[in-house]
Give the backbone structure.
Amino acid sequence: MQGVIIIAEAGVNHNGDLNLAKKLIDAAADAGVDYVKFQTFKAEKLVSKKAKKAEYQIKNSTHKDSDSQLEMLKKLELSKADHFVLIEYCKRKNVKFLSTAFDEESLDFLIELGIELFKVPSGEITNLPFLKKIASQGKKVVVSTGMSSMEEVVEAVSAIQKAGTQKDNITILHCNTQYPTPFEDVNLKAMLTIKKELGIEIGYSDHTNGIEVPIAAVALGARIIEKHFTLDKSLPGPDHKASLNPIELKEMVVSIRNIEKALGSSSKQPSPSEIANKEIARKSIHIHSALKKGHIITEKDLSALRPGTGISPMQIEKVIGRKLIKDVDEEHLLSWEDLE
């Protein structure tokens, strides 16, 4: 089975600077993620001139000159040429490039680029034309569900399937669209509800502070983890403060890979690493005090002591009432050969 897919969400944390975008790729590759993901959009196609910034954008951004979402987003666009540069740079760094489109023109461009995986951002889960265009490509689709009800998730999955994407190519990411998300609002168990209700692959897109929740999501069965990261949380821009720094990103990756190993299989068996401790840690039946040949064993004659190389205490009822065929010393490790 393929391991958990880790998507490092660079998003707009490049601040419109191609060199900063490359440094984000460096950090993602160094952390060992599978994908580094950006955002592809034309601000004018995404928001109206009168659209205000979200509360978190105002709070987290150091740009205080305007409350216009359009002005903010125009500064964060990547050009088409930038995309080609970043794709090649990702190849050099041995990390996969990914980007999320936020308007149909940008989606067309990503289709032209031939990307292998399409991401539906939370804000587009109710955008039927957008869902149908993505689904018509027949590739893997990842859907974020921030702000969504279960009914909306079901409707989106149904639309994606009807438009041409098979169910086993769809992964639904539980998500909360608040930056940062309060822990009490995460509702991580809803991820399991999605899996149960739809019988579909699940993952988690995280906006909490820290790395605990995505690690917990992996333990609960998430197959994809997405997390924002930045080079510096103090940089200007709406998402930096709710992102991991490079050290935290690497810690998250290491922790997730460790949890993957620890999950193992569903079989309860002693592991190879603990077999050697079995004889040391378990107990065997010992003779409590010295006894003579011919003695009939009683429960009072017996003790359970380490090591576990003799008769298991689970067999004590088969020992009681048996006759010794030789003299035994105090704390003698009893064997079946000692008994008649």
Observations:
- The two ends are 54 Å apart (CA to CA).
- The mean pLDDT is 93.
- The domain at 5-263 is CATH 3.20.20.70 (TIM Barrel).
